[in-house]
């Protein structure tokens, strides 16, 4: 595969996985198996984030504060230029935007995105450049898939590759959030805080006991960990 297809398939799979995780219910996270929350088999219907994000958009979204357009300062993601409207876009599943973890390389999910792209021998300069490229791409992806990405990833083979990365990154992100208590996507984090507040409001010591039980439980109590890289995973479109 070409460099653009390789990089974009990794980024797109990670974006879809992080987006899907952000839209889940905190209760489902701990009560259901990962397979029951799969982003491909169990999409989120009528996702309220889509309507909310469309409402926020303005005609001059490129100059909107916080849109990320002024963030890049380079053409690291040349494929993200806005393309003419395509009938295919309207039928494609939408994945609402969830920001990357603010901790950057300190977050294992971000490390895991860069790992299969840059490889194990990348030096610190390459990693920092890779992080900048990822952040730039992620901000552009907020506005939707670029025309060039739709074309590059639209073949049957590349669709299978993206689906494979989506499942891989979702399983990893789910494990990091549920088992290792890493920072979740922003929307999910907000719902977790709301759930915690409502539990406290219930009183009767239930919340305190639950917290104590959580602290006593081993970190891997929800299942095994996931590897940081892709390992020997076959991404050749077997979905």
The overall strand count is 0
- Total helical segments: 10
Q: Give the integer mean of the pLDDT values.
A: 79
SSE sequence, one letter per element: HHHHHHHHHH
Termini separation comes to 18 Å
Percent of residues in beta strands?
under 5%
What gross morphology would you assign?
A: globular
Largest sheet: none
**Secondary structural class:** mainly alpha
Using the CA coordinates, give the radius of gyration: 19 Å
Q: Which stretches of 5+ consecutive residues score pLDDT under 50?
A: 60-90, 203-209, 215-234
Helical content class = 40-55%
Annotate the secondary structure layout.
Elements: H1 3-22, H2 26-31, H3 48-56, H4 87-91, H5 108-118, H6 124-141, H7 147-152, H8 156-178, H9 186-202, H10 206-216
Question: What does this molecule look like?
Answer:
This protein is mainly alpha-helical. Helices cover about 55% and strands about 0% of the residues. It is built from 10 helices and no strands. Mean pLDDT is about 80; it is low at about 60-90, about 205-210 and about 215-235.
Overview in brief:
With 239 residues, this protein is mainly α. The chain has helices at 3-22, 26-31, 48-56, 87-91, 108-118, 124-141, 147-152, 156-178, 186-202, 206-216.
What descriptive keywords fit this protein?
single chain; 239 residues; mainly alpha; 10 helices; 53% helix
């Amino acid at each position: 595969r070409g460099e653009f297809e390789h990089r974009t398939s990794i980024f797109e799979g990670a974006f879809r996985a992080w987006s899907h995780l952000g839209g889940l219910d905190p209760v489902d996270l701990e009560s259901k198996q990962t397979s029951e929350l799969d982003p491909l088999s169990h999409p989120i219907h009528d996702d309220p984030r889509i309507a909310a994000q469309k409402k926020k958009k303005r005609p001059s979204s490129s100059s909107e504060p916080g849109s990320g357009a002024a963030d890049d300062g380079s053409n690291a993601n040349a494929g993200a230029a806005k393309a003419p409207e395509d009938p295919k876009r309207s039928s494609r599943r939408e994945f609402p935007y969830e920001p990357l973890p603010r901790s950057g390389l300190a977050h294992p999910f971000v490390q895991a995105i860069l790992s299969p792209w840059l490889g194990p021998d990348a030096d610190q300069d390459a990693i920092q450049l890779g992080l900048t490229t990822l952040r730039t791409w992620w901000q552009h992806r907020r506005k939707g898939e670029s025309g060039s990405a739709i074309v590059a990833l639209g073949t049957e083979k590349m669709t299978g590759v993206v689906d494979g990365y989506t499942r891989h990154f979702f399983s990893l992100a789910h494990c990091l959030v549920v088992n290792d208590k890493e920072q979740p996507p922003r929307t999910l984090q907000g719902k977790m805080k709301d759930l915690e507040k409502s539990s406290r409001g219930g009183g009767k010591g239930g919340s305190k006991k639950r917290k104590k039980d959580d602290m006593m439980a081993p970190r891997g109590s929800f299942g095994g960990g996931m590897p940081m890289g892709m390992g020997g995973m076959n991404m050749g479109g077997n979905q």
